[in-house]
Amino acid sequence: MALALSVSAPPVPTNVPETTPEIEELYSAWALTILCFLLILSLCASYYVQVRRIRAIHETVLSIFAGMVVGLIVRLSPGHLIREMLTFKHTLFFNLLLPPIILNSGYELKQENFFRNFGSILTFAFAGTFISAVGIGVLTYIYSFLSLESLNVTLIECLIFGSTLSATDPVTILAIFNQYKVDPKLYSVIFGESILNDAVSIVMYETLSQFHGSEIYVSSIFHGIGIFLFSFISSMALGVIFGLGCSLGLKHSSLSMYPGIESCLVALIAYTSYFFSNGLHMSGIVSLLFCGVTLKHYAYHTMSRRTQRTTKYMFSVLAQLSENFIFIYLGLNLFTQDVQVFKPLFILVATVIVCATRYAAVFPLSELINLFHRTARGKRGEEIPHSYQMMLFWAGLRGAVGVALAAGFMGDNAPALRTTVLVVVVLTVIMFGGTTARMLEVLGIRTGVEEGGDGDSSEDERYPLNVTGSGDWTNRSAPGTGQDRRFRQSPTNWNAPNGQPSGRDGRRSSRSGTLWSAGSDESDAGEVLPPGPNMQADRLSGVRQLAELGADGKWFTALDER
């Protein structure tokens, strides 16, 4: 007889007086304090691991263990209010934690590499996710026939279970890839596959949930495929429409004069696309991802310099906080979840099934992609070599999206399935995420690759063009040259009449070369005044002289085109 361990929250006594708002506020303050301390501890651990270059463990694994320790303490402590407040809530995850990660992923997307490998990304995201979901569902259904651990589930419940465990987690793998600057091609394939995979898993889950409790016919398969394609394409169109609308609004307005309002509008429009798509029963992840891509491609270059930097760092900071918070939440949820039914044998089998279906999805599809490139495009080498295939398999760890989807399980076996999903996610993150850095060395994958920008927002960081207060134009160490080239011109104040200085009004930005607005503080960079004809002529003459001084001038041409 197999062992099944059922753990439920201690019953709340009926004679306990009703919680007053003051007491609830007090306990919520303590719950938030615990979460803030865990976030601080997680970020300090991340700093220590990166400074010491520790490859044996990743900071996400440390976040999970920290959450587990605190969750165990909370579980053993008397009372129930703090435990209830720290319990994983899928609405909090989908509405607060997930959007910043998706938006930052689309906004910081390396579009050139992404669309160059778009065919491979779609193949893994659609066909690979379908193989994983159906494989997990069918094998789980076969396992249920053995009647071990009293697990009796229907086929549709097994397929829903498979769709939740087919959602991979991009956070851990991509954080390591960013740290070690992995080959851009491998990075773009894994990044695109993992982001679109989450969206495909959610749409597949919602599609299968519509057939829960009903009989499945052959026509139901085509009906489900139609719902899936309609939802995905419509969500993508909504995201592009919101992004283009924002771009046109920025282009045909003077919002660049008010960067604070401009930054808020860009963020709000992106979030609106997510919630609006979810409200229409579409995929908010797909809408937000493509809205971020559209904003970066079209709206970014019509924003003021200050808004460009604000949106870039604001989205990045929110995404990092959400990522750390999610892994802490996973560790906490192992002990704070109300009803937990542990079926050890089923958990072990589910983990093996997840790895087996990932293998079946990656390697055959990779061979098909290589065959297509050899026959249709006449390429001699492999499009996806074996080392990349192995890394794709290793990047198949499951993430919090599956845990959030599992909250919607229904039926008698829902607690057991929900607990199994949570444990499998934690196990795969620890197993695969903790050993990714070592696998990069074992497989001999290129690291330390400096990628050229393609519409990235950090041209000023890679090629800092400075104008000092005395009129010195400085280009510090252009990449590939190792030289420190400077160009000095006489300090001319463009706003002063007849070339006479006029105090603060004629100052230029020390980073972006734009004009300061009158009466602004020096630290308030980014409010751009529209240049007059004479100012444009002076600027163009300085630009031409500077371009002529460069070794090849290519970097400046690209910067000037931006």
Name a few traits of the molecule:
single chain, 562 residues, mainly alpha, 3-stranded antiparallel sheet, two-stranded antiparallel sheet, 21 helices, 5 strands
Structure description:
This protein is mainly alpha-helical and 562 residues long. The protein has 21 helices and 5 strands. It has helices at 21-51, 59-76, 81-86, 90-107, 111-116, 118-144, 155-165, 171-180, 184-209, 218-251, 259-279, 284-299, 305-336, 344-375, 386-394, 400-406, 414-433, 436-443, 459-462, 533-549, 554-561, and strands at residues 5-8, 339-342, 465-467, 472-476, 484-488. Strands 3-4-5 form a 3-stranded antiparallel sheet, with helices on one face. A two-stranded antiparallel sheet has the order 1-2. It is globular. It starts with a strand and ends with a helix. The relative contact order is 0.13.
| Beta strand % | under 5%
Helix percentage: 55-70%
Mean pLDDT: 78
Give, in order, the helices and strands. EHHHHHHHHHHHHHEHHHHHHEEEHH
Order of the strands making up the biggest sheet: 3-4-5
Number of strands: 5
Radius of gyration: 27 Å
* Poorly predicted regions: 12-16, 454-535, 545-553
Profile the largest sheet. 3 strands, antiparallel
Name the shape in a single word.
globular
Summed up, the helix count is 21
